Amino acid sequence: MLVFFLLSSCIKEIKIKTNTIEKLPVVNCIFSPDSIFKVYVCLPTEISSNEPNYIDDAIIKIVSENNTVFNLYYTGRNGIYKSSQKPEINVQYRIEVDVPGYATVTANDKIPFPAAIEDIELYHDQDILNEGDSIPMSRITFIDDNDNDNYYDCIGFRYSDNNKKEYFNSPNYGNFNPDNVLTAENDIDFYPTSFFFSDELFNGNEYSLTVPIAAGQYYDGNIEFRTTSKNYYLFRKFWTRHYFYQNNDRNVGNGLSDIDFLNILNMSDPIEMFTNIENGYGIFAGYSCDVWLY
Length: 294
Known about the structure:
By secondary structure, this protein is mainly beta. 8% of the residues lie in helices and 41% in strands.
């Protein structure tokens, strides 16, 4: 039987017999040019256990296509390693993780150029389930790069009283007519906590995406528009389905502070997930972003 395993934001395909899994290092790193590399390293635990099995003696380096080497250091907590420098856009990076007793874990990805945003419009649309009510919407107009297949992710966020960024989802699922591009992705029924999509329907053209994000001063909301790698996009789609089936009794729209999958930690369910890691489990993926603050 094939399953996938998630622990401390750790994901990968494994073969499982009875109640055991093959213990290989799990490495997770979602990176952008706005911050240093941050890598989570652990080992899978037994399915019956929720205790993380962090690794504190890994040797990690990230090498760019220009042979620049980032040597990561252990932060002393929760299997987290960090670099001292930030990655650059459109540079291929290869991560190499050596854990005693295991083959070197590797993966490759890059940060794509950010999309050119032309305009963001805030407006209200009719609530199709509650007559007379309206839904706050955002229309984001951007230009898609014609030279590549491109992938995007649109998220709403606000800052807390202590200036911490908190992502929020929309409480309006089922109450609005979704954008054609989002409909084609077939993710709306899984209550995605952000709006991720490819450029398959508008490759190389200007496009105006409509999403139910309550932005603006009245709602104290902002918009983060990410241009992502294909690895990020595929991981995000798999993650959404997992999160839906594991939490289908939750109150969608309570504004969960950890709804951005970058912040999902300390989970240990056998799940079917996408991965691009060799000799281990997990995800290594890049993105760039534009932020519109109100």
